[in-house]
Structures are given as structure tokens and as C-alpha cells.
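Researcher: Re-running this chain for the archive, since the previous output was lost when a drive failed. Same request as before.
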Amino acid sequence: MGCLCGVVKANKTPVEEVSEPKSKKKNEKSKSTPPPEKKTKEKESPRPKRPPPPPPPPPPKLPPPQLAAKTIQAWWRGTLVRRTLLTAALNAWIIQCWWRQTLATTLKWKRMEALCRMARETRACVTIQSWFRMLQVRRRYRRLRYATHIIQVSWRWYNCHTRGYFEGSYEITGDKLSLRLDIFLGSQVCRISDCISLPIKD
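Model: Regenerated C-alpha cells:
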């Protein structure tokens, strides 16, 4: 029995030593973090719910004459609204038709102006092209005319040198006519002189 008691005592001492710091830690935690009082209060005292609003009172029942008048007034108001809507729709349709017609006329005039402008531009282009071609043809004609003139002059000069030419002079002395002709054929010269008697009556 004595051994068992000693064992029990030896076992009890370390348990007490280990349990002491846990209790200290719990006390420190309790001191550092105060208990949440607000949450407990909120949980304890819930907000009172508002009661739902009471339903609206039912409309009072009108007598038959007033109900008939109300129905007639509603019908008349609907008729007036329909009439105003119909007039507004008709006016909008008229305005749309007029605007479409105006757009069509403006588009037509724009097309006509574009066609006239294109015709003027094409006419101007054709005129400029024809004038330029005329200048080219005139230049070519002048070149050809100048070339033909040079060819003709050179050919005439060649023909004159090959065929020859002549010069002459005459002198009248009394009743005689003396002639003198010089014919040039290239480098050769032929001279002819003659004296002719003239029949002169007294």
C-alpha cells in the first residue's frame, strides 16, 4: 500500500504543475479580450417589427346616375384623345409627304446640276483636246511645207544649173537692129550676135 500511495503522490504533483500555467493563460486571455457585451445585448433585445400598413378602404359605391355620367365622361375623353391622336397622325403624314416630295425635287435638281456640270466638263475637255490636236496638225503641216519648200528651191536651182539660162541685149542704129545673146549651159557659154535690117518707110 505504501508503494502505491507514493506512486499516486508522484503522479499528482506533475499534474498540478502542468495545470497551473493553463489557468494563468486563461486568466490572461480573459483580461486581454473583454467579453462581447454588445452582441449579447443585440441578441437579447431584437428590434420590434413594424406592423404592415392597413389596406386602403374600398371606394365608395356611386349611385347609378353618377356611375353612368362617369362612364360617359370617360368615353368622351377617350374619343377626344383618339381624335387628337388621329389629327396628329394625319398632320405628321402630310408633313412627311411634303418633306419626301421636297427631298425628291432637291435630288432631281442636284442630279440635273451634276449632269450639266459633267456635260460642261466633257465639252471643255473635248475642246481642249481638239485644240491641242489642231496645234499638232498645224505644226506637222508647217514642217512638211517648209521641207517641200526647201526641196522645191533646191530642185529649181539644180534644174536651172543643168538647163542653163540666157542673157541678151539689143541696139538700134538707123535702120538696123543689132542683137547679142549669151547662153550659159553650166560651165559653157554660147554667144550669138546678129544684125537685122528694119524695113522703114520714108
